Structure formats: structure tokens, C-alpha cells
Amino acid sequence: MSKRVTIKSIAKDLGISHMTVSRALTDNPNVQKETREAVRRHAQDVGYVRSAAAGTMRGNVSPIIGLLVPNIRNDFYARFANKLAEECEAAGLQLIIHLTKDDHQIERHCISRLREIQARAVITVPTPEPKELDQITDVGLDEIQLIRKRQTSPNTPAVLVDDALAIRDAVLHLHRTGHRRIAYLGAPVTLSSGRHRLDAYRSGLKQAGIVEDRRLVLTDSPSISMGNRLTRKILSETDASAIICAGFEISEGALKAAIQTETLNSRLAFVGYGDPDYYSWIGRGLCSIRVPVDELAECAISLVTSDKPREAEFKFAAKLIIRA
Amino acid sequence: MSKRVTIKSIAKDLGISHMTVSRALTDNPNVQKETREAVRRHAQDVGYVRSAAAGTMRGNVSPIIGLLVPNIRNDFYARFANKLAEECEAAGLQLIIHLTKDDHQIERHCISRLREIQARAVITVPTPEPKELDQITDVGLDEIQLIRKRQTSPNTPAVLVDDALAIRDAVLHLHRTGHRRIAYLGAPVTLSSGRHRLDAYRSGLKQAGIVEDRRLVLTDSPSISMGNRLTRKILSETDASAIICAGFEISEGALKAAIQTETLNSRLAFVGYGDPDYYSWIGRGLCSIRVPVDELAECAISLVTSDKPREAEFKFAAKLIIRA
DNA sequence: TTGAAAGCGCTACCAG
DNA sequence: CTGGTAGCGCTTTCAA
Question: Are A126 and A149 in contact (CB under 8 A)?
Fold first, then answer.
């Protein structure tokens, strides 16, 4: 149909040079007032929008930032992405969301795509267990790690959750309410977050005077199905009376398993992770480790907009929410 | 630091023409095998990625599609966006998500931004009540309307939900279980979806032999707060024993109100809209009108990839899920 | 106050 | 098989 509207086409329409059009459109003072207004009016009329591609090619920083998350169905990621998108809107940024499904291959591919469009930055939840610990080190664009920290890239800022106290509190709370057989479901210790959370659990046990039973500690690459599977395993193979979930997806899967097996809060006390709204609506409410989502998102976006700090860790404390 | 890696920089490195590099990188047969491999190896080594901007400027269709939704915290939008993002990944597309908050101004601004980057298409949930019914008509890029249909743009494909039967079934179900005072919460009839849903409710009443009580029918621009507010109003000002929510956000707000006032399923039978997983976990489960999210997303994305049908409506049937 | 030229990275189109 | 040229839309730099 109609060709693309460019400053040149406008220039031709008006019988002037495309430079004058450019100047008029960028509020350059060196244009006759009438000319400027005529240009703007005509541009409006014909529906001109400037080409971002041309700008990018000339070296403009792109307004696009990438978000790499496993999914956006999980309450935490959805909330984070939502908050981030709001902040982007306010900051005049555009947010591209890529779902990695925690797959290392996909992750690399997405980063490549973001490089192609010269995205300004990428906020990423690093996939667990990068089998090939090498190459990913330099992603080739500004990277901000979220929640998890890849050990191989020490120069990258990271926005992390400090959940040690909350997890310890969870153990202590369960102990106070009579539980002695407290199971733990988390990521493997090869992930830094997996290690720290397990340490916190152990510190809670110690403080409560409970001796760790290794059969009650199950770790694997975190996912919904992992949470579901291992919860059933705990229910069928152990005498655990309580379970602590140390991860968003894990918590989601574990909750489903507990509900499906009808053991929730009857046979099995549940401490979730992430605290979606509906946790307080199930039964008389579920205990949960609440993560300050909005703060995380604000911190992440501020790292994008103010390009000050390289190589830094920002930690936000999680909090145990007691219910039921 | 290091300058951008381009085909020219590679060409210089290798002492050949940038054209040969281009050909090698695009699998053009007219390159010596050795040359091609040398080029590819070197490109790999120096971390070359082709510039999407350059491509776009030459007229390549952009791989970027936009999604305009009120938010992605609501279960339905989160699921839709998630499915869409998955499909995009599979189709080699990149998904930019803009949150409109159902604000007409924001919506227009977002579309403008998407035009600047020459997005391939935009999938949009039109904001309700565009006060200025004019200009928005031509968004200037391929548009696919979702869930709601803007009356002013008849030439745009729309992916819609046909919930008439489900809503009528909800009324009949409530009637069967003894309810006579059935309230309805929905969008205003100025929205096509608002009109159709209200009609369905009325058709249900009629079939059940119930005379409509206008005090039990509350409509307003749909939002969470609207759902919350009007539910409280119904509880305090009427003798309704049941409520049907005709909209995602409405359902979310209404549920919160019912739970906060502790009237859920005791004083007030609840029929939600959208059926998130946790609806089945609350109490003995909540009735709900389930919308086929994945089908909607698949349809939308297929409209983007196969550029066949202009001006068409695709309807997907919702279904009443009975619980409790 | 205006215009012309150059160049950002890339490929279709011609010459060799 | 390989290399040069031109041009996508825009702004910076220089010239009028």
C-alpha cells in the first residue's frame, strides 16, 4: 500500500530539504517557526513515526531491555515481570520477555537475539547448572542477574534474596508448633542459592536442637515437577510432618502434591516460598517465605537506568509469614 | 571498549571484502568452502552478531511483536502472555509486553512505540471506553484484538471468547442449587463483551424463570477495585445469595471482597471468571467460567505468522466449571 | 536559516 | 567465485 513515511517523503511533500524536516522534528532552534509548524502538522497528518532502526544504527542506545525468566505463570515471576514492565513504562523503556524454561540452550539463544537488536541490558534469572561453565561468562551486553548468581561471572551486578533468616525462622516456627520431622526441598548445593538455603535450614535445625536426617533433605534442579515429585516421595517414604520449600517453582509443585494427596496441613505442615495472594486463602492460610518482589524489580531497573555500579550484589531480606 | 564487530571489521581482519563475509555468513553458495569456514570461525571467535537494525532498515520484517494487556499479574493475562511467549520462542519471534492498565492514553503511546521499532504486529486487549472514538482506528501496524473488540475498527481480526453458554449455565446451575437472588457483576453494555455477557445472564434468568432485579445487576468499567467495591455493595445493600463475575479483573476483586468479608460460599455462592488453578484449592473449590487460554494464544500467534486472514472473528467457547 | 554529504551495518545488484 | 556500489532513515558536520 502506501510507502513508509520518512523525513524525506515529508520533505518532498513540502518541497524542502529533509534536513529541515529533521530539525523541525527534533526541536532544533535553527528552523523558521512557520516551517517547523508546517512540518509538524504534516508529519502528524500523514502519521509519521521516526524509525528506531535508523537511530540504533547511528549509535543511539536502544530503549529495549530483555528479561529472561523461566516462565511468567509462577506468581513470583509474573509479579516481578509486571512490576518491571510498569517501571519500564515509566522510564520509557520497552521490555522484551523471553522464557528460558531454565534451559541453558534457550538462554544462550535468547541472549544472542537480544544482542542482535542491541538491547540496552538484560535482566536474567540464570539457568541452574550450566553444564558448560565456560563461554556464557561474557554475554556481550549489560547483564543483571536476578535471584540466582552465576559463579562464573563475578563482574556482573546481582539482585538477590537474603532468605537465610526466614528459612531459619521457618524451622524454628515449626519446631515451636511441635514438629520434629521437618523435611527440606531445595536446589542442589552446586547453585549458590541452593547452598545458602540449605545452610539456613541446617542452622535452624541446630538452633532447635534437632539432628538432621538426610532422608528428609531432598535437592534437585528446581522445577514444578521436581517439587511435586519429591513431595510425594517424602510423603510416601518418610515420616515427615512438615515441609519447607526453598524455591518458587518447588513450592508450586509441592503445594499441588500436598493438595492432591489431601495431606495439606493435616498430615503435612507446609511452608511455601514466594507467598502469592492465594496462599492466605487456602484452608486457614499457608505459611510462606515472602520475597520483596517490588523492591527487587525497582533495584533491577535502577541498575539499568543509572549505569553506575558494576560488580555489586544487592540483597533483599525475605520474611517468614506465619498463618493457620 | 572494543568497537562493535561488523562484517567490515571481520573483512579487514581476514583481508577480504566485506561482501564475501556477508555471503559466507548467509550461506550463499558463491563462496570458497575454506573461505566460508574461516569467516565463520573468526566471526564466532570475535563474537559477531548481525545487526538487526541494519536488517530492519533494509526492509526486513521485524521479528518483534507487541502485546498490550492491562497487566500480567492477573492469572488469565499471565497465562496468556506465558503461552504467547512460548509460541514466540518457537516461531523465532520476540515479544514486547506493554502494560496499558486499561488506560487509553498509555495504549496509544505504546502503539506509537511499537510503530517506531516497526513491530511486526501487535496483539492487544483494547482499553474499554475509548472516550475519543476516532483516531485509534488505524494503529499503523498489523493489529489483532484480544478478548474485547473495538467497535470502531471492523477490519481488524479479533480473537474472542464466547462465554454466553457458560454464563447462562452458571445461572441455571445456581438456580438448580436453590439460589433465586443471583447477582451479576460485569462491564458496561457500551462494551460489546459487556452487552453479550449481560444478555447471557438474562437469558439464563429467563430460562430459570427468575424475574430480573435491577439492583442485582451492577456494571462498571471492569477492574479489580471495581469488583471488590461492587461485591461489598451487593453484600451490604442487597439480599443476593449468589454472584456471577463476568470478567477477569472483576472476578479477582470480587473474590477478595468475599474472602475479606468472610461470606464466601457461606452467605454468598461465587462464580468466578477465568479459573486459575487455585480456585479449586479454596475451600471445597470455587465455581468458575473457564476460558481456553492456550487456544486463544495459539490462534493469536497463528494470525501473526500466517498473514492470511484480515477482518475475521475467531471465537472460543468458555465452559462452566462446577465445584463445591 | 537552510542544504549537501557522509556514514552507521547490511545485502541486492552489477562488474569483473 | 569475488569485489564494488548504492541505498534503507536518520543526524552530525561542514558549506552556503
Answer: yes
Residue with CA nearest D2 C1'?
B20
The DSSP H or E segment spanning B68 is strand B64-69
Express each pLDDT in A85-104 by its tens digit: 999 999 999 999 999 999 99
**What's the CA B142/C1' C7 distance, rounded, in angstroms?**
32
Which segment of A117-126, A149-158, A212-221, B245-254 scores lowest on mean pLDDT? Answer: A149-158
∠ Cα A232 A237 A240 (to 5°): 80
- Is residue A211 classed as helix, strand or coil in its secondary structure? coil
Q: Residue type at A289?
A: I
Closest C1' nucleotide to A53's CA: D9
Contact criterion met (CB < 8 Å) for A99 and B112: no
Q: Out of A56-70, A132-146, B202-216, pick the least confident.
A: A132-146
Residue A264 pLDDT class (50, 70, 90 cuts): confident
- Quick check: B146 and B301 in contact, CB under 8 A? no
For the segment A104-118, what is each residue's pLDDT rounded down to a tens digit?
Answer: 999 999 999 999 999
What does the pLDDT read at residue B155?
79
Edge-to-edge, what's the strand order for the sheet holding A121-124? A313-317, A158-162, A143-146, A121-124, A64-69, A94-99, B94-99, B64-69, B121-124, B143-146, B158-162, B313-317
Residues in CB range of A125: below 8 A, 6 or more apart: A68, A69, A70, A77, A100, A145, A146, A147, A148
Residue that the C-alpha cell 526486513 belongs to: B60
Picking from A73, A97, A140, the nearest residue to B47 by CB comes out as A140
